[in-house]
Amino acid sequence: MARIGVDVGGTNTDLVLECAKGVFYHKVPTTLKNQSIGVVEGVQGICRKAGIAPSEVETIVHGTTTATNITIEHNGAECGMITTEGFRDILHIGRHKRPYNFSLHFDVPWQSQPLVKRRNRISVAERILPPTGEIVTPLDERAVRDACALFRKRGINSVVIGFMFAFLNDAHEVRAKEIVLEEMPEAYVTLSSEVAKVMREYERFSTAAMNSYVGPKTAFYLRDLDSRLREAGVTSKLRIMQSNGGVSTVEACAKRPIRILMSGPAGGVIGGASEGAMAGEANIITVDIGGTSADISTIPAGEVKIMNPRDTYVSGHPVLTPMIDLVTIGAGGGSVAYIDEAGAFHVGPRSAGSEPGPACYGRGGTEPTVTDAQIVLGRLDPDMALGGDLKLDAGLSYKAIEEKIAKPMGMTVKEAALGIIRIINNNMALAIRSNSVARGIDPREFSIMPFGGAGPLHGVALAEAMSCKDVIVPVAPGITAAVGLLKTDLQYEHTEAVIVELMKAGEGQFARINAAVATLRDKVQAELDNDGIARDQQTITVIAECRYHGQGFELRAAMPDGPVTAQNVQVIADSFHDQHQQDYGYSYRKAEVELITLRAIGSASVRRIEIPTIPATDGSSIDRALMFVRATTFDDGRTLETPRYDRTKLFAGDRVPGPALLHQHNATTLVPPGYVAETLDYGNTRIRPIGA
């Protein structure tokens, strides 16, 4: 049966299809007003390309930026919040952190762009006390109904319920939800204990508020997409990529859209890790450069990293949900170059997107972009974009750069275009350093992997800036994120707060830990059962999130096999010490270790896409792949006659010396002078200095 991976970006929608006839790739413009239209058109188009009927598709795995874009554009739902009396301002106060310690002018996102406006945060009487979750003040149900009446009057239909210490006892939140749905049957309701059953009220409330803020629009998009696919004759299962690198169902993600805030970039990291394995490289720095943004992640020893909870911020708001460790910046092919009021030269983060797009698209865009600079420098051939399917106008690129950059700066158009490329490369290099060098990782031991439609044009420059050992270009660079969607497993996570000092724990504490583990296993198993996964295909892992007594955040530690007892509790402590040593370079082996949260991760393995190998070189000349020769300007300012090769006609073992461009439908790879590109077994490419 056929499977499709669909990754929707800000500019293009990328698709990969695996079926009995082979692996097929496709790319269509993103329909920004309703992304589901472009997804359906892309699915139909790739099925035609493969010569199969849409009804033959068994599964579609989708990476989406819908929830992410809502947070960036600040156009989520108008939310109401019901919270504990005396605590309505927690979302405003936050942690009293200054984003920039020494700046007199800075923005505080949780205050300037609140997820729930203060007038819509209603407090009610109720109180639960730690550490047992004892109820000391019953829930004022009349006050909850009055809050609902106020929400109805204000036209609010998305409600957050967050009570103090609900992570220890969720009875009040559950009852409040029942009342809200009685009073407002169509309301979108989020409980803090459902989305983040962990301590820290500000982060928990913020997570619940974010869920309700992005929830209505995200749920509508996912269900609308599912419906449109059915209408188009696609009866396959639709799965959604989550921020943690696993996939889930439409309904699960519609209820908890915070799980998919980093859905799109996650597919690229998974795909990059897989491509690294295919190239025999364990240490990879992925740089996914699309039309709008660049997503950067470091993969040491082939292991995709999950962010620490303290780092999981989205648009300035803390969100306690597992996310792949990556950095996103506004740097892509559509990033706009401009001169500010003070005369400084900038590129990005604003993007021309796909509508109107770069000037060369001829859709009304007049501002110069990175893509326009690549065309002016001869690195993109205007008649070869998307294999010739997208015709570009080089004259419009030249005009935009000349009028907006070159003349105001008193430089030639070529100098201005080179300046655009150098600035965007420097921006990306700084982001790579923040995700590698700043965390104790030596880039000299890593290969850089550029992908996305624009990635392979920047690969060598970024490798030089970071002193990486070489460049690995994936088989289908422009579709790598979509390929990653077909290389990941179904995954669910649940948490339970259990605060215990491990070295002082007695039988009562061990009983609490083991009861919580059993509850978590049942929850995860129920979700996998509902998704039709056979019990023998389910894998459930429970991990402990621990800290030294008095620390502010936790690290993940392994749990022992079987129930936790006095005899094996040291397994958790030792694992925590080891993780602390790895992350921070030191540990306190004799210090008390506190268990804070238990997390259960349930997964089910799915069949991975299999990329076929290509024939080995027969010793014939690479001229078999030669297309034509054109002038191209490189980073050192030299303009050289540069051959273009059809990358799909190269065999494993073929070596292409620079200068050269490698063409394929979804991306163009730049091989500068002094470098050589070697085709590897799967059609991927390694670029390194000649003689290295």
Automatic annotation (TrEMBL):
Transmembrane intervals: none
Name assigned to this protein: Hydantoinase/oxoprolinase family protein
Domain of life: Bacteria
Pfam families linked: Hydant_A_C (PF19278), Hydant_A_N (PF05378), Hydantoinase_A (PF01968)
Residue intervals of the Acetophenone carboxylase-like C-terminal domain: 511-676
Residue span(s) of domain Hydantoinase A/oxoprolinase: 204-493
InterPro entries: ACX-like_C, ATPase_NBD, Hydant_A_N, Hydantoinase_A, Oxoprolinase-like
Domain spans labelled Hydantoinase/oxoprolinase N-terminal: 3-183
